[in-house]
Design a protein that fits this description.
119 residues, mainly beta, seven-stranded mixed sheet, four-stranded antiparallel sheet, 11 strands
Amino acid sequence: QVQLVESGGGLVQAGGSLGLSCTASGSISSINALGWYRQAPGKRRELVAVITDGGSTHYADSVKGRFTISRDNAKTTVYLQMNSMKPEDTAVYYCNADVQNGLVVYDVWGQGTQVTVSS
């Protein structure tokens, strides 16, 4: 089993920066990818950024050039550095792990952390 614990988040002014981190524990070797999703009020949860076990990264178009996803060498902690933030970045941010157990692939989610960008 994999567990995810997030930290970071909070309130920032437009144009400012904020960082999130997420630490995974448990069956780390079963993780295919770690990523960040967000969900704004009344909207669907959407992918923000993901980093695969091989180190490849993918970003939503809305955050390209502003957000950076990275992880530690042990592949247990994933970070999201958010720069040049906009009010539309306001959402609950969730850490996600894509986990594989044999032929079964499933998602594990963190508890979520609120990010609010004031204009």
